[in-house]
Amino acid sequence: MEKFRIFGGYRLSGTVTVSGAKNAALPCLAATLLTREPVRLSGLPRVRDILTMEKVLRTLGEHCQHDNGTTTVVMGQATATHAPYELVRTMRASVLVLGPLLASRWQARVALPGGCAIGARPIDFHLAALARLGADIRVEHGDVVAEAPRGLFGAEITFPRVTVTGT
Which of 2, 3, 93, 134 is the most buried (most CB within 10 A)? Predict the structure, then answer.
């Protein structure tokens, strides 16, 4: 456990509330695409990437409600599969919705995150992993287009190096 050691003439006291980690919250939000049951997440940080991911989820048919530090995500009746560039252009983590969309809706179309080229900031690891799981992947007009008409299947995948959003 880490700690702060304060040197000085004044004793500190009180409490600090720490929100959850963005890099942990984004995959949790993306995973809500896998269920029709309401999902409640507590302590999500209210930062731009989280707000953008919530907008992406709304575009894909989910409803996000906030109450007392808890975000509840509920799947609607929509079957949308496209996360447009206008929403994902500033957020690399938008690639996280590809897997859940493929698993639940058998297709996905997600704009290249941040307008990046494949390989510039490696979403190529994600695309290769999805292909190993049985998805057909291609890039069309700045979008990653993925289809898994026969569904996805298990595979052992090892990334060539550490990737924050890949695990």
Answer: 93
Q: Say which amino acid occupies 92.
A: R
Q: Determine whether 28 is an active site residue.
A: no
Residue 24's nearest CA partner among 74, 96, 85, 82 is 96
pLDDT > 60? residue 117: no
- Residue 103 near residue 34, CB atoms below 8 Å: yes
Helix or strand or coil: residue 63?
A: strand
Q: Which of 34, 116, 128, 152 is catalytic?
A: 116
Q: How far is CA 31 from CA 63, 114, 143, 146, in A?
A: 14, 21, 21, 17
Beta-strand runs (E) in the chain: 39-42, 62-67, 70-75, 82-83, 107-111, 136-140, 143-147
Q: What integer pLDDT is reported at residue 123 of this predicted model? A: 82
**pLDDT (tens digit, 9 = 90+) per residue, 61-101?**
999 999 988 999 998 777 899 998 888 887 878 889 999 99
Q: Mark out the alpha helices in 60-141 (DSSP H runs).
A: 85-88, 98-105, 124-132
pTM: 0.82
Under 8 Å CB-to-CB from 44, ≥6 apart: which residues?
19, 20, 25, 29, 50, 71
- Domains parsed from the chain with CATH numbers: 22-160 (3.65.10.10)
